[in-house]
Design brief:
Elements (H helix, E strand, L loop, with lengths): L9 E4 L3 H14 L3 E5 L3 E6 L2 E6 L20 E4 L3 H14 L2 E8 L7 E6 L5 E6 L25
Parallel strand pairs: 1-4, 5-8
Antiparallel strand pairs: 2-3, 3-4, 6-7, 7-8
Length: 155
Amino acid sequence: MIEVNGMAHVILTVSRFEESREFYCELLPFLGMHKVYDGNNFVYHVGGRTALGIQRPAPEYADERFEQNRVGLHHLCLRARSRDDVDKAAAKLREMGATIDRGPIEGDWAPGYYYIVFEDPDGIRLEINHVPGKGLLAGATPLSPSDDPDWDQNP
């Protein structure tokens, strides 16, 4: 058995590439992520112990839009360091004119769960949340006897 150390990256295929490039290139730096690649068909940001990229679809899928309940991605959630950061992200999203589905509000998924759900130009749903402390991991038994000193529920 191994214990993974988080999620390295997510790549989203978007049909409205230019609109999505503008959206993500404004939002992700606000969230502390740095653009490390920007080409004709792909943009990639890194930060917060993860990375997020967007790419153009194959030509035969260029007119399609995201459907949340189809097989595949339901939504992507980024973890914030505080409730205040969720509120700041919400203000930024409103300033950008983003579609906000709900929040910021508290949820029942874990004690103190606080989040906002919004959409990118393709309708891909994203969430930014904060869970204080270790959240649901507070009572979990470690998977391995060695503790990773760099790992934290809210890095």
